[in-house]
Fold:
Amino acid sequence: MEEKKHTPKTFTPEEFGVSKSKQERLRVTTILENERIKQGVTLEELSEKTGISYTQLFQIANLKYIPSFTSIYKIAEALGKKLVIKVE
Structure:
């Protein structure tokens, strides 16, 4: 399946009207999606590395689905990034 090219996304919490927890997950998801594009990793490749279905990754990439922290962790790891959650 050929993947459409798209420009890096930006995230504005006000657009979504969601809780702070979901806002933070969307913010991190946006960062990771832009990193995926930068690295040239396809959703199919990311699906193979994470075990997350292509369909779900497509929805995540297009901000149609808010992933769990577990999914975010898997995506970050597959992209060679470290996810750090800090409590102050």
User: Anything to note?
Assistant: Residues 37 and 50 are 16 Å apart (CA to CA). Residues 14-78 form a domain with the 434 Repressor (Amino-terminal Domain) fold (CATH 1.10.260). The chain has one domain: 14-78. The two ends are 44 Å apart (CA to CA).
